[in-house]
Amino acid sequence: MNRLYETENVSLAARAAVLSEALPYIRKFSGKTVVVKYGGNAMQSEDIKRAVISDIVLLSLVGVRAVVVHGGGPEISGVLSRMGKESRFVGGLRYTDGETMDVVQMVLAGKVGKDLCSLITEAGGKAVGLCGLDGAMITAVRRKEGEDCGLVGEIVRVDRELLDVALDAGYIPVVSTVAQGDDGVTAYNVNADTAAAEIAVSLGAEKLILLTDIRGLCRDPKDEETLIHSAELSEIPGLVKNGVVTGGMIPKVDCCVRAIRKGVGRVHILDGRIPHSILIEMLTNTGVGTMITP
Amino acid sequence: MNRLYETENVSLAARAAVLSEALPYIRKFSGKTVVVKYGGNAMQSEDIKRAVISDIVLLSLVGVRAVVVHGGGPEISGVLSRMGKESRFVGGLRYTDGETMDVVQMVLAGKVGKDLCSLITEAGGKAVGLCGLDGAMITAVRRKEGEDCGLVGEIVRVDRELLDVALDAGYIPVVSTVAQGDDGVTAYNVNADTAAAEIAVSLGAEKLILLTDIRGLCRDPKDEETLIHSAELSEIPGLVKNGVVTGGMIPKVDCCVRAIRKGVGRVHILDGRIPHSILIEMLTNTGVGTMITP
Amino acid sequence: MNRLYETENVSLAARAAVLSEALPYIRKFSGKTVVVKYGGNAMQSEDIKRAVISDIVLLSLVGVRAVVVHGGGPEISGVLSRMGKESRFVGGLRYTDGETMDVVQMVLAGKVGKDLCSLITEAGGKAVGLCGLDGAMITAVRRKEGEDCGLVGEIVRVDRELLDVALDAGYIPVVSTVAQGDDGVTAYNVNADTAAAEIAVSLGAEKLILLTDIRGLCRDPKDEETLIHSAELSEIPGLVKNGVVTGGMIPKVDCCVRAIRKGVGRVHILDGRIPHSILIEMLTNTGVGTMITP
Amino acid sequence: MNRLYETENVSLAARAAVLSEALPYIRKFSGKTVVVKYGGNAMQSEDIKRAVISDIVLLSLVGVRAVVVHGGGPEISGVLSRMGKESRFVGGLRYTDGETMDVVQMVLAGKVGKDLCSLITEAGGKAVGLCGLDGAMITAVRRKEGEDCGLVGEIVRVDRELLDVALDAGYIPVVSTVAQGDDGVTAYNVNADTAAAEIAVSLGAEKLILLTDIRGLCRDPKDEETLIHSAELSEIPGLVKNGVVTGGMIPKVDCCVRAIRKGVGRVHILDGRIPHSILIEMLTNTGVGTMITP
Amino acid sequence: MNRLYETENVSLAARAAVLSEALPYIRKFSGKTVVVKYGGNAMQSEDIKRAVISDIVLLSLVGVRAVVVHGGGPEISGVLSRMGKESRFVGGLRYTDGETMDVVQMVLAGKVGKDLCSLITEAGGKAVGLCGLDGAMITAVRRKEGEDCGLVGEIVRVDRELLDVALDAGYIPVVSTVAQGDDGVTAYNVNADTAAAEIAVSLGAEKLILLTDIRGLCRDPKDEETLIHSAELSEIPGLVKNGVVTGGMIPKVDCCVRAIRKGVGRVHILDGRIPHSILIEMLTNTGVGTMITP
Amino acid sequence: MNRLYETENVSLAARAAVLSEALPYIRKFSGKTVVVKYGGNAMQSEDIKRAVISDIVLLSLVGVRAVVVHGGGPEISGVLSRMGKESRFVGGLRYTDGETMDVVQMVLAGKVGKDLCSLITEAGGKAVGLCGLDGAMITAVRRKEGEDCGLVGEIVRVDRELLDVALDAGYIPVVSTVAQGDDGVTAYNVNADTAAAEIAVSLGAEKLILLTDIRGLCRDPKDEETLIHSAELSEIPGLVKNGVVTGGMIPKVDCCVRAIRKGVGRVHILDGRIPHSILIEMLTNTGVGTMITP
Predict the structure, then answer these.
(1) Distance from CA of D188 to the nearest CA of E (A)
(2) Distance CA F262, CA F260 (A)
(3) Average pLDDT, chain C
(4) How many contacts does E have with F, using Cβ atoms within 8 A?
């Protein structure tokens, strides 16, 4: 297990307090489903990656049904560049021609996902690397809104069967965001935040956790001290209006809102750079990010 | 939940460390049986009593099959004295005539045990108060060695069936140390340490925890800093010879030795006066008492 | 097994007739729940006690889910008197101060109930001694109607879970009438007839059997030949009006009426002094007491 | 239910005694297998037939796994005679040519067996009429010893599967003694006592009951008062030598001996003419026939 | 296995085509119920009989829950004539006096049905010969319409329990068309087409297959080339009106119509004289008879 | 479903013969495990690929537990060449440096395997794309014998758990031959024939089918008419000695031999270029390739 801090220096009373606080949460979440969207900087540092994986494995040890949904933009760009092909983005989305789609599929489903499985094994867990082509788990159609981005898809259906098979057998599904076209042939590149949200919805997840590169939603985005620990769905429009949620956070927060509306219990926006932020958020009374509730 | 300390003052890193350390233990002990012998001073203070009960309930929440075996000497003496009957001890054991036996049975099985069930309910758990007469769970014969003590019994058989029924259904059995005579009629007063050990043996328990009024075994009994954290069975005779184990601790340690020999995984001698000593001993790397291993 | 009479003197034809008659009843009641309220004189004679226990064990052998609910007034008075404390009754109910409540709990849950378990074991059955504090099985509030009687409670809820756990595992629950206060702390003394009725209701029992010191309801209470074998619920008010039901029988019959109204199949008022009255009433065409039907 | 005698005239004490005695037997035999060979005079009187069927249905009601194996000599002879064909016997066995075999099969499997099923339905039970051709349940070869009797077979194998299917589903198998030849084509006529014994052996039956036209084995065959209630296997040779067992009883007793040797618990030779002899023998302390024990 | 043709002469491509076509049907029908009415000429030729039995056994091997309902007019007439009793028919139905009924029951349930079981065993399957008297499976009342035919019954109830018991255990029920009278005593002779239809209805069968002596329904009954492969329920009245369905086919088609109306999936009228017509109809795209659909 | 041939032209008799022959095989293989090594030319033609996939899906429809193990040399070479990296072979094995290994993993686990899953979905089946990194399914160490080939591994352990999870849930595992290093970090490139054999062994497979580019083993390799339909293990050394097995077939046949020795039931060497060769080999009496038996 990866631990950045030793418990020897923690007083008996503090240890007892942390444990007494955590056990009821463990019981509460045991058997429940938690979907973690994992990407961005939290995936680039080896130390942070190990801490994230450690948290997920630890939760699965105590019965949480954990699902990891990952991205992999930098890795895709790397392979494309080695092939002498430039990455091209349209409105923030990667333009995905057929050749690019092959690379997206190979890198995500063949490399990033399977390597995460390997890390989970090393940390004492069990994982299986899946994508939308496995058992037609994620079906998409070509994205219609906005400018044409090629084989970028919009999810139209998630079939939870294979996820349940894996979870019931104690495996952590590691899902790569490649979808099966509804023509049964074409593969599509889909957005990881959206995929995580749709998967959480289809599983009736207790929690959707988005690991990001920010502390959470802050009343003053420049001051982490103004972090909003918890917000109800009804407060979100006001936060957008007041400029608390801006830019790239808007589609992310939209994802959260849709997930909650479709039955996910809670969504957490966490700072992936804080080691063990998942454990702390889930198992202690005072969280470290922003929780959105119905 | 009873908590003597707030977690707010514990740093994120410390919390993460405590939790990361605890979760593998929780997984390890989930589904395993732990027998706690509860008596002495840890049963006289209301605060400590609540902390002990809280620990046991918390462990049961995360799947530990916890069994409580309790004594109740002071309560028995109290009722006897209210009846104008003096308590009489022979070689450390209560002389138990028929009238005394009735009081022992009433106080332990009717009052102390059932009140512990009530406290467990209050703490969020489920309990059932049993004694050796329930389903002939504990059978004893009249104690033969030493001076005659009346209806003091020696356990000859523990039938685990009823304990399993309760544990399988999620109940914490609270066992009063009254045994069924092998004539099917007489009831016997049995020693609580021995009863706990025999029950742990019959259940193939992972752990037997003796809550006592001392810190554990100390190389220099007057200096708690010399606490022996862990001792193998083979080291025990030396500890007795060297005077580390003396007086009333000798029969207790004998109990531990027999339990280990008959298959109990670990025995812990803990200081019942330290709040939450059970949680700390079971779920952190650095224990607070003495652990005896095979 | 306790038998007061040998079968040798019974003709083959008579034996065949009794058995042919009994087997369909045995099939009918196998797997069904029967709650027996056991108290009064039927509990004072050792012979009768053994015959009652024998009947209950025999029924449990052939699959009846039997529950015993017992009282113990004389035993409580005995212990109180040995403590130099006089029993005091208010309107037929024992005035129960805190000290008395402790004695009620100790005597019923610690002595009378557990001793019945011992007898059941001896007769070849399996039993477990429970009270309202076990798994918060019976919850009560302080009795509000009538004169103040101290800690005398009125049942507000019966939780059948623990009874089912015991019954499913083949144990006969022996229930002492001590209830958990709804504050989670106070214990209350509750009426045994009422407790038996409420338990029968919560279990959806096929039968509630009240063992009493009278033959049953008789049209002329002084003439047992006028015994009413069977009465419908609608006939009860007339029987009260006509003086068939009087005095202490009125609350008992009220209990029966409430039990039937809340779904219990049949209530039987039996003479506990007739040996094996339970077997005869349940397994032959011609009963020995009064059966009340919906 | 068929009852030849009313229980009204039986005293309460007698009823209690019969029931107290019977219930432990009922528990003991519940779930156990009892094979009844039914034939002879007990099958000719309608009253006796109803009493026998009633006993079997009653036992099945309380969980006994009852199997009926029947003969039907008189019925076979009747049909043959209506076809103008004379019955011919060789050494006590019916000479069975092909035409006769067709009649044996039709009468036993089509008429006598199915009619018994109908009676069992009427008595409140469930039955299914089987023979050795169903699921190749009984396999035979042509009888080799003694004079040639045509298609008379010797059983070489009983396959219990179909019997278990029926018993597990609560049906009473009614078995006609027609066997499948080991060539897969020919059908054989087999002896009913032997078939019952072989079936009892294959099922590991608790009891094999042979309903006969005699009271049982009597030391003086002319005096029923000398009935032998119970005999051990080792006593049988002596009984044959002393002329207690003679004539047609010798092959019957041989059957019993083989059944016991191959694991059947007890064999009972009962007088089929005594109404309800099965119930009395099985559920009371004092039997009415001869029991052979290992 | 009986095979009239070797596969050696079938090209690889043809074999692959037949198999590729068959496997989805096998999956579709596995676990589904198919009732086959078997009678007429298809029962008189030994070769055809073996081919029919082979088909049914093969289907049961791959998980089809097959039920056979058979007639046996010629066999009944044969036995009656050997008894010197003439068969008498009234409006196409056998006049069934008591003596005749005994013969009907004996021949169908004792001979024809059990012999089919024997053939099924020989072909590698498992079968059990049942009739309406087994477990009161088929209940009938005396036929009221038309001229009096004696003990000819009209089915009023089919109890599927025993059929399910047999099918669940992997046995093919072979049902003889003898019914239990609703008085619990009389047995009735019932029409086999009707019995098959009622059984199919009670089992919610996927298919009812009537093996007949004609090719199917033909637009020009004299020209098999005009075979109607498939007809919807709504087309049937037209077919009767146009003389496509005439004479003895009218009641048969009525049976089919009722079966479909009461929930049977498909009814097939097949030519029992074509070897393996059942396999070909069920497992290839181009059937050989007429299929009636809802 | 893909079908290269219509059944219309196949005579009824031929269809019946093929089906009668196939059904017992279907029953025999239902629930059994068949591992198909799929590679070479059979993977390059789209038509053949669809026929192979169709066969596997059809078998899985009738209950065969099918596992596909695939290679993908040409696809790997293609991506390497697009990266400007030349493929290099050492003694027939691809020299695999770290960069090449990344490509091997991406192409096999991310592209070839997942695309096969997509095809299986299209053909009506369910599949999941796995590799040795999923649940540490295949563990390897660096290949020691022969010349150094970089990250080419030798399998030391196959963990069947994840395969069983997928198969039990009705999924066809499609396995890419990438193994987890026993250091828990490095990934290795492993030979597909060997991987298929080891997987078949770990699953106790009924059959291992190697799809190749030759007709099977032929006594005269130049004459397909000399095809050896079946060979026992003991005949193999002779075949090598006599030059029947030569060159690249030697390691393949070695694989087969090891698989049989370790418990696989049968190994088939089939010509992947014959459409539906798997169905024909498995479900007809006359196979199309060479079967090796113990």
Answers:
(1) 12
(2) 5
(3) 92
(4) 145
